User: Fold this.
Amino acid sequence: MNPFRRPHTLADVRRHRVKAATVPGGRQPKGPTLMPSYGFLSTHPPTRCGLATFNSTLAAHLTADGTRGGIVRVIDRGGDQRAGPEVVHTWSTHGSAGWRDASDVLNTFDVVIVQHEYGIYPGADGEDVLPLLRCLKVPSIVVLHTVLRRPSA
Assistant:
């Protein structure tokens, strides 16, 4: 793959390797390159909703080749507490400041993919996801599943 060409398809992205740290003199070290690890923030099965299904499918696809990944599962009060092995942390929306622990876990990955839908994050208009995003030290991708015509500040 041409290193100056931006990836355009998922297959291109999956082939694009994150290079290991350079050795003195700016040369690339010999040996295998590394795939980025993915942290996901979303509802997730056994929660039954379209967002959980979308996130589950995306996570399974991006980690199918053994790439490291983990899900921080958002659950509501009274939600099903069971979680599969891909779930590395659960953010219960009825606890205060649950975003702190969730951001700590997500910072252990190379890239974070956040699924956003109104009503899944705590706080007015789900505002508790904002301090989590501010605490991330790794790149994040936010997927907006609904965009309001007149959002609140």
Remarks:
- Residues 1-24 have pLDDT under 50 and may be disordered.
- The first helix runs from residue 10 to 15.
- The longest strand covers residues 69-75.
- The CA atoms of residues 99 and 131 lie 7 Å apart.
